Amino acid sequence: MNDNVEHRTLNVEQFLECLQGDNMAEFNQKEYQTVILGALLHDIGKFIQRAQENPAKQDHSHWGDEWFQNHLAERLTYIFNDKEKQTIRSAINNHHEHEEIISLADAISAGMDRIALDDEEKGDPFTHRLKAIMTQVAHTEEHKSTGFHTIKLLGKDNLNEIFPDSNEKCSFKEYSALLNDFENDLNNLHKSDISPLQFIDYMYFILWKYTWCIPSAAYLHEPDVSLFDHLKTSAAIAGCLYVYEKTKGIESTNIDDPAFLLVVGDISGIQSYIFDVLTQQGKVAKRLRARSLFTQLISEIASHRILHSLNMPILNIISSAGGNFYILTANTEDNKKKLEELQVEFDRWLFTNLRAELSLNLAYITLSGNDLKNFSQKLKGLKTILNKKKYQPFRSILCNSQNWDENKFVQPEVIESDEKICNGCHEASMIENVFNEEGLCENCWSDTQIGQKLPQSNYLAFFADSNHDFTILNYSFELWNENDIKKKIYDKTSYLILKLNDTEISPPVTGFKYLSTHIPTKQDIPDANVEKDNQPVAFDDIAGKANGDKLIAYAKGDVDNLGKILETPFSLSKFTTFSRMLETFFSGYLNKTLTGDYRTLYSVYSGGDDFFLIGPWDETIEFMKFLRSKFHEFCMGNPDFTFSTGVLLSKPHEPLSFCAKNVEEQLNSSKHRKDKEGKEVKDGITLFGQTVSWTELDNILENANKVIEWLKRQPPVISRSFAHNMRIYGEMAELSGITDDIIIKTELLRFIPLFTYDINRNLSKEEQKEAYQWATNLLPSIETPKGGNTLRHLKTIMGYVLTFTRS
After folding, report:
1. Is the confidence at residue 332, as pLDDT, over 90?
2. How buried is 8 (Cβ within 10 angstroms: 0-12 exposed, 13-18 middle, 19+ buried)?
3. Are 729 and 799 in contact, with CB atoms under 8 Å apart?
4. Measured between alpha carbons, how far is residue 161 from residues 135, 177, 500, 502, 584 in Å?
5. Which of 8, 623, 647, 648 is the most buried (most CB within 10 A)?
6. Which residues make Cβ contacts (< 8 Å) with residue 350, sequence separation at least 6?
7. Are 579 and 235 in contact (CB under 8 A)?
8. Cβ distance 67 to 44 under 8 Å?
9. Radius of gyration over alpha carbons of the chain, in Å?
10. How many CA atoms lie less than 13 Å away from 171 in the CB half-sphere?
11. What is the pLDDT of residue 376?
């Protein structure tokens, strides 16, 4: 998937080299890096202080300074000179050369006008846990319980540590154990052979791992921002301020100065790209997750391209999930020009290599420090700009001046008359490859290779050229397993190596990434019709694990009312904490559960605030119930945090595009669920053609399992034909409550005498007494004129029963 577009190749040593621009004569790259690193470590003393038996002995800056001297100074000798080390140290002990930059960055990150040296944490901050942001954020006034995070490194307990509890207090011993592990991870850094950028990136990920659960400041009203997110955003802001001041030739920045650009990137066309061109002949199970990963990595690599071009480290990515990303950078004319150039390059690559099936739109807005304190309000304005650009995809290459060039809308002929067409997408010519037995084009062949490697991959390596396995936007990536990383440990061409779904890292691995990668293989389904243990199984094999009907279920869901939630007041650091925790749940925790107790489910994608899964129909429904209960626990019952799901049952060979569109309709039905008063409440699941609440789903499954048990007895308590009739009566009952046509309603209400007759005819024996009572309680009566509570769900109950028991 290469093209001939010229581009500058960057490697890891060149990542943060000289900024270009007319007013950058005083810019010093190494000084810039020390400012960023100093800001990233400026409050490290709060971590050290909390790990002491007598924390109030001295303030956090002194604790941090001592720790720096004892644990970090010598290690930095191989990266920075004495003056540069002193700059970093002075940021920690509050006597720094760039005091105004880091102090202002600190204040903006915290959502305050300023933070003075006497703004020490009040009360007893050393025993207070971090408030769980998922219990603090809201868009209504409903009562919410406050939750707190345990003091554990990220990933220590299979991500169960991200679930809050009501215990507000902790001891210094918990912090002490955490600090000990933190220092051990720092010891993995080799004293030499590491660049400043690699050190900044490594510290970023290690701080994420250990300080995600530490409150940033207890003098704030609601300490629900982690120390990690405060340090990250402070460093991002400080780097921008340094560039802005050097570019403008000014000595200091005011909090009202428009020093920042907030950049957003958004991919359009994801669903059609993933689903529309896939056919069964193209071995869909292997290629489906590959296409999904590819779209995710377009977003990831696009953000890297922007960082490299604008000379920013990875911590300037504010968030990246669900096909979009936000980057904070300095407001300079040079940066704006480079963003426009990158838009052209992205457009050209996607138009040429992916036939414009996906588009990537960039937009930006100018912000001041005060704007970053009210971050959520500015997001609305940025989204308005982005939406306008989304209506004009590829404008940069389809226009001459301000007018559309109609000739450029026609793709050049790519298939000669004597060439064979790809069996996967039917849109490009086959490639000549001795291993290409399926007859695929270059893109579909690449999908197959990604799908083959993904289940056994532990690492994701990125390269600033197009010379490696899989190319995106003139960069490339590779998927490595444990053997690969051992062979390539001295490979210096990768600018970033991430470990997948595991926080245990050491160089050359720079960091980690939670990615929902689970695909059922022969190890998960031993009787699958594939040869190798790590080979993805077909949908037929997944359907074969279902009880009763051999069907698969498509499940799509997302968080309700996220737009409203994001309109509530957020500072920059609060936004990063919130988006990171949500991403950790859907990308990290969800994947952990799939690789544990739900291994037959297939993750098409999961991240940000949504997911798309495929699995045996009954296990998929069970998993939806489980996932919703865990999300409820994750938010500690916060009534403003719910999610809705649509579930579609299908034969394994139904066209993917058809199923994807239909499950989207099921999700939309859930999003429009109304309560008994007619109020739209969402927070539900649609299955078997009916939308119900999660509590109602529990009742449905309880009753369904009861009927299934009656059918399984020997002899059966009820007949299958009677069960089938009950489903029809359930449908009639549901429709009678919907229609206003008196003639149709009268006809539908015939279910009452028909059901009564069937009950008396089929459930007359002594051993059928329980079933008789259950069925009779469904019927309308004087006491219950609309029938028993279960009647309105009888259609779904019996749909589940009949599907589960079909042989």
Report:
1. yes
2. exposed
3. no
4. 15, 15, 18, 14, 11
5. 648
6. 356, 358, 359, 360, 394, 473
7. no
8. yes
9. 29
10. 4
11. 87
Question: Residue 683 corresponds to which tokens in the numbers above?
Answer: 């927070």
Half-sphere exposure of 20 (CA within 13 A, CB side): 8
The letter for the amino acid at 314 is: I
Q: Which two tokens stand for residue 316?
A: 């300037």
pLDDT reading at 650 higher than 70: yes
What pLDDT is recorded for position 24?
52
Contact assessment for residue 165 and residue 146, using Cβ atoms and an 8 Å cutoff:
no
Domains detected in the chain:
29-128+169-248 (no CATH), 260-513 (no CATH), 544-691 (3.30.70.270), 698-805 (no CATH)
Instruction: Tell me if 581 sits within 8 A of 598, measured CB to CB.
Output: no
Give the alpha-carbon dihedral of 152, 157, 162, 164, to 10 degrees.
-80
Write out pLDDT tens, residues 335-365.
999 999 999 999 999 999 999 999 999 999 9
- pLDDT band of residue 788 (cuts 50, 70, 90) is confident
* 576: its two tokens: 């990063």
CA atoms within 13 A on the CB side of 267: 29
Phi/psi at 317 (5° precision): -75, 110
Average pLDDT over the chain reads 90
Residues 6 or more apart whose CB falls under 8 angstroms from that of 677 comprise none
C-alpha distances in angstroms, 479 versus 483, 486, 740, 771? 11, 13, 59, 56
Largest CA-CA distance found in the chain, in angstroms, rounded: 96
Confidence (pLDDT) at 122? 53
The secondary structure element, H or E, covering residue 365 is strand 359-367
Asked if 163 contacts 48 with a C-beta cutoff of 8 angstroms, the reply is no
3-state secondary structure labels for all residues of 368-428 = CHHHHHCHHHHHHHHHHHHHHHHCCCCHHHHEECCEECHHHHCCCCCCCCCCCECCCCCCC
Directed axis angle between helix 284-310 and helix 333-353, to 10°? 160
Distance CA 13, CA 660 (A): 44
Residue 177 is encoded by which pair of tokens?
């154990």
For the residues 743-752, what does the mean pLDDT come to? 94
Contact 327, 551 (CB under 8 A): no
DSSP letter at 495 equals: E
Kindly report the number of other CB atoms within 10 A of residue 665's CB atom.
Answer: 12
Q: How far apart, in Å, are the Cα atoms of 574 and each of 141, 225, 709, 752?
A: 19, 6, 50, 56
Could you report the per-residue pLDDT of 513-552, keeping only the tens digit for each? 999 999 999 999 999 988 888 888 999 999 999 999 999 9
DSSP state of 457: -
H or E segment and range at residue 529? none
Indicate the angle between helix axes 99-110 and 227-248, nearest 10 degrees: 130
Of 318, 319, 320, give the one whose Cα is nearest residue 299: 320
Q: Which tokens hold the place of 23? A: 């007013």
DSSP for 165-223 reads: BS--B--HHHHHHHHHHHHHHHTTS-SSS--HHHHHHHHHHHHHHHHTTSBS-SSSSS-
Answer whether 500's CB lies under 8 Å from 457's CB. yes
| Phi, psi (deg, nearest 5) at residue 219 | -85, -10
Residue 744 banded pLDDT, cuts 50, 70, 90: very high
> To which H or E segment does residue 498 belong?
strand 494-500
Q: Per this entry, what is the length of the chain?
A: 807
* Residues paired with residue 476 on neighbouring β-strands, in sequence order: 463, 471
